[in-house]
Records
---
Amino acid sequence: MLCKAEVRTQICKYLGEGIIEAYVNGDFVLHLQVPDDERMWLAMLLSFGDKVEVLEPESLRIRLSEIAKNILSLYCQRGSMKTSRADIIKSIRKEMGLSQEEMAEQLFVSVRHLARIEAGEASINVWQFITTLELLGSPTEDFWLLYLDSSEYASYRDYRRLKRQLGNDDWIEAKNIIDDIEKGSLIKQPIVEQFVAYVKVIIEMTVPSAETIEALTKTIRISKPRFEEDKISEYRMSYNEIYIALSIAECLNTLGEQDRAISIVQSIINSRENSKVSEEDKITIFPSLYFTLSRLLRSVGRYKEALKACDYAVEISREYNNLRRIPEMLFCMADCYHKLGEEEQIYKTHLIRAYHTAYGMGRNDAATTIKEDALKYYGVIVP
């Protein structure tokens, strides 16, 4: 790609130093190898705007062109150009059928400030703007990073890294990342503040209690001040809110309130198509929803329903190519078949598949646990 001289320092810092040709005026050509399924390099590339031109491959030039067109289309409505964020905010609010009071709550601003924003008399920061776009269901995963400076982008990367570690259940690393995030500038943003507060509650929890549920409810009310458990199916929930609600359900299950826990998870599932979750986050959150429901149903002896939920969890995991939990899902299905009195060959097959899937993923500890539990609880020797 052809890069302007003025962005050389940032290019070398964030994209590497693969310069293969330099010109007298300081411009240079950079060779970069990147994974197709990673968004970060693409977002960073877009952040340099017209200071960088991709020369090849042609497929990437076309992809960038399409992204640029999509960004432009966000500002067009019925053939007229919308150059003002104020116009977009007002348009989206009306299209969603929201009052100024309801929209103000979503954006964490006063009604008076929202009125000034819509009148073009007050500014709106990028996080509030992105929240507005998400209300409409507009794609925001790529272009919004253009608004961040280098220090904010570094904080954003820590925030995304924390979410990935949460998905991998790596709580030790998550704790270290939190320290970095709290030193950064984005900790003041409600979305980041909420997620960090949630993770800290989970890390500091020893045994689930009523106090834990109260603390989790407090974190979800950062974004939904009037959050009520029995209204979850009516909400358009974000990634953070879904994860927090799932944790509340897990705590309730541990405290013996299984029916209440199942109701929460089922309500989230019922409203999942209306959720405010990016495509990247769906990979983590959607399989977890059904697997959690399956475990909860199994804990109260509703094995047929648990089996159905787990089977769907496997299907969604494959759809989103998130296979990490497949071994546990297969083990869960084996247990359901066993509890339902099915023939040994049926649940034995699932136990063997669970073991070999975990082993094939390099999850040796999980594979060992599955093998030991298969013999201990079901009398099955896993070859």
Note: Confidence is low (pLDDT under 50) at residues 77-83.
---
Amino acid sequence: MALNKGQYIGPYLLIEDFRIAGGRSKISFAEAGGQRWFVKEFLSPKYPTADSPGSARTKEFKRKQCEEFESHQKRLMSVTRSACSMGSNLVCAKDLIRVEASYYKITEAIDTRTMLPNDVSKLSWKEINIILRSLVSSLRILHSNQIVHGDLKPENILIKKTDAGIYTTKLIDFDDSYFSGQPTTDRESVVGTPEYYAPEVFQYIADEDEEIPSSSLTCKADIYTLGLILCEYLTGERPIFDKKKYAYAYAATLAGEKLTIPSGKFMTSTLTSLISRMLELKSADRPTIQEVFDELKMLDISVEPIKTTTSPCSDVEDKKESAAKHSLKMHLATRTIPASSSKLAEVSAEKPKLKGTLMKK
């Protein structure tokens, strides 16, 4: 049964008809208790009712899927609500309600407009620093509870300027979140956004033989994605790689290409080093969210960072850097991509049905 404006979902009165959003859900708004609420209807899974098509065996299988989905979502909601009660900038769900075959998630209605990364990069150092600290602090709360956001991207980071003139961030959309090392076993339902995939996320999705364990998807997957986003906020663009060969950053990383951090007015060697470590291929080589937070906290918020190239020894350092770059260039020109990475590229090229592709056609 399709619910629309004027009908109730539990105590929530729908004030708009549902509309499709992103192909995986429908959205609407409701009112309850004198407050406005955002309502999301999941298009999958659907709970098998008495009049649903299918055999008893099929219904039992679908019922089990729904019970796992409901248990997972309610567990996430319970943990995130606890974090929200501590005054964090996480926008948490209020209810998960099933009406006949469909599941509905209820969240406080908020203004989802946000700043584009390029606009953030044009702010002052103090403003950008506050935004980065606020974002990392919110993610730190999730990770301290062993929750992987799973779909970090600028659209899910709401940046607003308060009446006091201070920028704040809110982290939204935990529909694809999971507990560290415990993603869904239905690999094709791991969605996220390919532009912000960590390498291991793509590997997990692409692994038809299921040889890659679910334990490989940890909070460190968020760290890779966060590195891409921090780069955008600081420079106005994502890390640089050969886009003629690779569609996405994770693909270049898997193939052994080191992502290049663009220059920016606040991009010092310290920040470049931090982001580069966040973008390492091996998740174990990436810093934890606490380490990222600590490094950002060490930066003086009141003093604009000075690039290392403007130091008194800049001429000497520039020559050393030039020599190092030349040496690295010669090394890259003569090396070969590891067999394991080449195999990944070949596998990806043969799987056009996958949500993300490793090599550009």
Note: Residues 56-84 form the longest helix (29 residues).
